[in-house]
């Protein structure tokens, strides 16, 4: 008997190569693509650019299906959550899936966009992999526009939760939030935190001419999208307190012109290197002495489980974080330090700086990350998602 084949549709926040960043959803889509029983993976995503060609084949073999926003400016992204603004843009995808009705169809929502997809075809399973408190303002600020946006996202997310067979959350806070939702009353809701490509980050080596090796030590670093959820005033205070330390930001600017970030870059010991190829991010992790997760206090950040925590640890680097309650349970001296105040954050870095190369602590950091390999996490996501009750 021939094996049943699956077409997996992954609903993503943007095009595959947007910002050249790799999130959980990218790694999971590639995991699905490599499964023996997978016929095809389709990456469904919004795009601010109008394109007559909806489908495009990515170099990794995944098919991308683009749904253009009403207009390019960010303010028009509300159309991703309201059916009339995208319904007709799903027609080609519907035809494509219906022509392949001999395969099992699985829908994976990774953000609460395009909820009408749940009615597009007869899905064998619908799964919601929730990684953020999507309706909350990322910078912590609220406005009339943001309140309307919040209402639209809540409505879309409620529909997705209601239609899903199984739901996964990347933090305990998200899990508690989803469990309180009346639409999740009879759903399987699990916590599966973010992980790490362990071997890549553990085994990577730094070349002698690496661009970070010439900076004064210690090199304190943040890698990832630079967004309003970060506390730039805190990092500026750190830069002023320790002018001889090097503080590095590596990643694209997603601050929408933040004046705080612009002011931070005026400090002589702050270095913003821009975005780098995801393939060499492990090398940058190895070149940094201490990783930082300097997040603001906000409702949004209470739900965040940062991708970089276990990546830093797999590279043997200590980490100091703040305003990320989902990570408190992983704190351990010399491994991961969780700070409650700005002063604690800065003093913790002072303590950690004296133990960077301690071989016993390096081993502890690596051990803390070893069990968090993405393959282990995705094996659970896949098996539980497909085995969930209808």
From TrEMBL:
Pfam name, any one: Glyco_trans_1_4
EC number(s) for this protein?
2.4.-.-
Which keywords describe this protein according to UniProt?
Glycosyltransferase, Transferase
- Signal sequence extent: none
Task: Output the Gene Ontology terms for molecular function.
Answer: glycosyltransferase activity
Look up the domain of life of the source. Bacteria
Q: Does the keyword Plastid apply?
A: no
Broad enzyme group: transferase
Record-linked PANTHER family: GLYCOSYLTRANSFERASE, TEICHURONIC ACID BIOSYNTHESIS GLYCOSYLTRANSFERASE TUAH-RELATED
> What is this protein's record name?
Glycosyltransferase
Which organism is this protein's natural source? Answer: Mesobacillus jeotgali
